Amino acid sequence: MRKFAVVLMVLLFVAVVWGKQTVVVNSYMSDPAPKQVFAELVQIFEERYPDYDIVVNTFAHEDFKTLLRTWLNSPNAPDVVTWFAGERMRYFASKGLLAPIDDIFDGGFDAYFPKAFFSSCSYDGKVYFLPQSWYWWGVYYRKSIFEKYGIKPPTTWKQFLDVCETLKKNGIIPITIGTKYLWTAAGWFDYLNMRVNGIEFHTKLTAGEIPYTDPRVKKVFEYWKQLVDRGYFLENHTAYSWQEAATFLFRGEAAMYLMGQFIKDVAPEDVKNDLDFFRFPIIDGTVGLYEDTPIDGFMIPARAKNKEGAKVFLKFIASEFAQEYFAKKLGRLAANKNVAPPDPHAEKGLQMILDSDGVMQFYDRDTNPEMATVGMNGFVQFMVTPGMLDQILENLEKERVRIFK
Amino acid sequence: MKSKTWVPYAFLALPLTMYAIWVIFPIFQTFVLSFTNWDGVSPKFDLIGFENYKRLFSDPYFKLSLNNNVKWLLAFVFGNIPLGLGIALLLDQKFKGDRIYKTLVFLPMTLSFVVIGQIWSWMLEPRYGAINSFFRAIGLSTFAKPWLSDPKIVTYALIAAASWRQIAYAMVLFLAGLKNVPRELVEAAYVDGANKWERFWYVILPMLRPATIIAVTVNVIDSLRAFDIVYVLTRGGPFYSSSVLANYMYIQSFHNYNMGYGASIAVIQFLITFGFILVYLLTALRREESTV
Q1: Higher pLDDT pick, A99 / A21
Q2: Residues A374 and A236 in one domain
Q3: What CATH number is associated with residue A211?
Q4: Which of A238, A244, A247 has the most B C-beta neighbours within 10 Å, making it the best mutation to test the interface with B?
Q5: Which residues of chain A neighbour B56 with C-beta distances below 8 Å?
Q6: Is 90 exceeded by the pLDDT of residue B279?
Q7: Where exactly are the structural domains of chain B?
Q8: Strand A52-58 and strand A358-360: pairing?
Q9: Residue B237: pLDDT above 80?
Q10: Local structure of A296: helix, strand or coil
Q11: A73 lies in which domain range?
Q12: Is the pLDDT of residue B74 over 60?
């Protein structure tokens, strides 16, 4: 009996010392495709590192955004969270809620990722964000519909308007959009502003340095108004989420959608190959070509319990193998610079970005979170009641002054 | 006997302590927070006096939300309660299948607001939703409206969705109340020559006062704290046109990282609700006493 007790004690001791470490990952990858691929990656990691037990909690995208703040402040913070690079990450880093992860990169950040990513992933010289994948935005369209009406992807604003007109005449909704959660409208603002005023202006505006009542901002809305007034956007778009609006495109009732590459995640199999994209049309030939290229990835909360375990996991995620695995399965671009684009579609996307003159993240990742909510509400309001533009911009300006005081 | 007076307090001690910790204390915390500029993220914050409240009164979205709450309140009290009472009177008679009807009307009560919101979001969908399809099918396509995207009607669409459940609630309260109305009293009034309307107004309705007090109180509170339906169906959109105070508070606190400002909205909401209920209960109870 005594022997048994001793053996039991030893076993328990071994179990404690050699037992699995738990790493808790809270993830917003709730769409079926990325969720599946991420689960596969986790499984591979656990096979390679049997000492670690990764617990993944998945949350719906919109819920995740509101919950993150609570987690970061909680004494039971998760060890790893998914998030967005740029201002949205910096906001938390500046409050001391994130742990720096510089030490996971052998040979430095630049050995893994393009230099251009550093500023979006760091705060005050320290890296807080591990980029996993990135993607481009473009005007996604149905090839079959374009073929049917003999339409070629437009490159200029004039051509773009003509395309819309042709589609409308034929009873097709030219542009679908779902603005229930606001951010889709910000894509239009980003692109129009970058095409009309360029990236320097856009950067200053999102940094809160330019009044929203500036005549140059107004000009952006003049172009936008041309589309609204002619009824080129999906009707009642405020009633739809981005996925719900995408179904109009998938059913062939709408022809175009200004969206990120991840639209392919939710497209049905038979539509996937009928989806292609073109670069947002040029408005002013003297302005460079700028694009939105949001970077998605991971962070470690400052209050995480198992930071060392989290770093082992993130190191794996940063590896060429894991980055390629994720990018390949989802047709995205890996952040790791040694990974080639996974398919011709991604190659086309990468080429578009390489040919561009500069990139931004996205309105709600480039500007202050509060300004983003107010701004995007204003954009949607404009899309519904374009006549109220002056009032909307005055309100945005009032808020800008207060928020960036 | 006297030695036993402490017993009820001993039993109450635990629940009261919990109530104080989880309900009373956070209310005071909210009051304190409303005088700060806490963003909900930083460890530190400053006391800024009445800044948040000053900002509230020049905030168009706050006014809009408050205004919408008034619409909810009016609809709940003057729409749902009479409707619930009417249905209760109808179903309080003995007829074949009365239980089935009661169950059917009562059914929405068993659903949570989030589920109700989801169901109604399908029904109100502008293109393929059940309501618009129905109107188009019977040739009344002018009634097929973009319920959730037209700023002018969206609040009423949300109130309709919430009322679906709320009317059932009022009905249950009144059905229970009607069971307590003594038959003899109504029959006596009948013998005395009171017509249907007089019997209802002078005999049944006064007997229903306890049920009415509960119905009004519950509906006032529910209308002022409305949140779930709004959040699920529109999130207060398009551009805040269907926002209510609870929704606006949530967006400010958790989306915009303005905990302090959100707290000041919560305080206003608390004061309004508290004020309404206090005034109503005081008058209702006073009347109760005077009739006894």
Answers
A1: A99
A2: yes
A3: 3.40.190.10
A4: A238
A5: none
A6: no
A7: 21-58+257-292, 60-256
A8: unpaired
A9: no
A10: strand
A11: 18-135+294-354
A12: yes
Instruction: Tell me whether residue A359 is in a domain.
Output: no
- Residues A392 and A382: their CA atoms lie apart, in Å, by 7
A231 domain-assigned: yes
**Min Cα–Cα distance to chain B from A328, Å:** 33
Inspect the interface and report whether the beta carbons of A236 and B151 lie closer than 8 Å: no
DSSP letter (8 states) at residue B36:
B
Do A281 and A302 lie in one domain? The reply is no
A149 and A185 both lie in a single domain: yes
Q: How many domains does one find in chain A?
A: 2
**Does some domain include residue A259?**
yes
Cβ-contact A287, A73 below 8 angstroms? no
Model confidence pLDDT, tens digit, residues A270-314: 999 999 999 999 999 999 999 999 999 999 999 999 999 999 999
Q: Would the CB atoms of A239 and B149 count as touching at under 8 Å? A: yes
Same domain, A46 and A142: no
Q: In this complex, do A381 and B239 lie within 8 Å of one another by their Cβ atoms? A: yes
Report, as an integer, the average pLDDT of A100-129: 89
For residue B63, give the nearest of B206, B278, B241 by alpha carbon. B241
Q: Same domain for A269 and A212?
A: yes
Whether the ipTM is more than 0.90: the answer is no
Averaged pLDDT, B225-253: 90
What tens digit of pLDDT does each residue of B33-68 get? 999 998 887 778 888 989 999 999 888 889 999 999
Q: Is the pLDDT of residue A34 over 60?
A: yes
Does B237 contact A380 at a Cβ distance shorter than 8 Å? Answer: yes
Q: Do B239 and A384 touch (CB under 8 A)?
A: yes
Cβ-based neighbours of B53, under 8 Å, separated by 6 or more: B34, B264
Return mean pLDDT, chain A: 91
Residue of A nearest to B44 (CA): A95
Q: CA A78 to CA A162: how far, in whole Å?
A: 51
**Contacts of residue B41 in chain A, CB cutoff 8 Å?**
69, 72-73, 91-92, 95, 97
Does residue A4 lie within any of the structural domains? no
Give this prediction's pTM: 0.81
What is the side-by-side order of every strand in the sheet holding A173-175?
A173-175, A254-260, A137-142, A275-278
pLDDT digits (tens, 9 = 90+) for A217-251: 999 999 999 999 999 999 999 989 999 999 999 99
CB contact under 8 A, B255 and A179: no
- State whether A276 and A308 are in the same domain: no
- CATH superfamily of this structure's domain B60-256: MetI-like (1.10.3720.10)
Give B-chain residues touching A72 at CB under 8 angstroms.
Answer: 41
CA–CA min distance B253, chain A (Å): 9
Q: Which residue is associated with the tokens 């005023």?
A: A197
pLDDT exceeds cutoff 90 at A101: yes
Please give the average per-residue pLDDT across A313-336, as a whole number: 91
CB-CB under 8 Å, A395 with B60: yes
| CB-CB under 8 Å, A95 with B256 | no
- Give the per-residue pLDDT at A1: 56
A315 and A256 inside one domain = no
| Distance of alpha carbon B176 from the chain centroid | 20
Q: How far apart are CA B146 and CA A239, in angstroms?
A: 8
Mutate to test the interface with A, among B39, B41, B261 (most CBs of A within 10 A): B41
Q: Which residues in B lie closer than 8 A to residue A385 (C-beta atoms)? A: 151
DSSP state of A340: P
- Token pair in block for residue A273: 């190959």
Q: Which residues of A touch B60 (CB under 8 A)?
A: 395
